[in-house]
Amino acid sequence: MDTQTQEHKEHKGKQRVAEAEAGPTPADLLKAVGVSFRKKLAKARVAGPAQRLAEPWVAVGHLDPETTEAELRAHFTHAGAVRSVTIRYSSGTVDERVRTEGYSYAMIVFRDCGVAHDALLLSGSRVGASTYRIAVVSTLADLPEIRALAKAAVTAEKNVRIPSSSASANPKPLKVEQTKLWLHRPEIRNQLALQAEKGKTVYELHGVEFTLETE
């Protein structure tokens, strides 16, 4: 073996060691997500026929603040063709400069409802090198941030009664201040508005029944 060949082998060996010490590359991480997703999808196909959501989109919560739209697009392409990715903030805006509260979520729109349904299997995965495990849901009310808000509201308000199977259908009303806390959220306000359109006077959100008290 000549000296040049030996030096080349030593250089390649050092390069492999350096790459291993540096950890997986973004491409490696993305490939690992794809492998895991395909396994989950195969199991889902065996369990039953593919379902379809009513709309071709999913909402993504528990986002790393550093996650970008480009990273999300690459991540969700494992499920199928992505039409658009939008990161929104809890103020209801897409402009981070006017963000008023502490969380963001993403809206991922796909080419069809079947792809959107498959994308739900990406819940619990990590985007890139982030340590956050994302939550992928089909309705905004199921975002972990919204659920946390509802849980906090129920915990803080003693006169909100969580009904049991044997409870009577006479829930106590929320106080005015608590009503405002719920209704300043567009997602919650829209959900309650849909219930009101159906003529309901007793509302339900995340298993909690209540009536709304006005000022």
UniProtKB/TrEMBL annotation:
Segments for region (Disordered): 1-23
Highest taxon above the source species: Eukaryota
Keyword Iron-sulfur in annotation: no
Keyword entries, A-Z: RNA-binding
The UniProt record lists the keyword 4Fe-4S: no
Composition bias type Basic and acidic residues, residue spans: 1-10
InterPro entries to which the protein is assigned, alphabetical: Nucleotide-bd_a/b_plait_sf (IPR012677), RBD_domain_sf (IPR035979), RRM_dom (IPR000504)
UniProt-recorded Gene Ontology molecular function terms: RNA binding
The RRM domain, residue ranges: 56-139
Listed name of the protein: RRM domain-containing protein
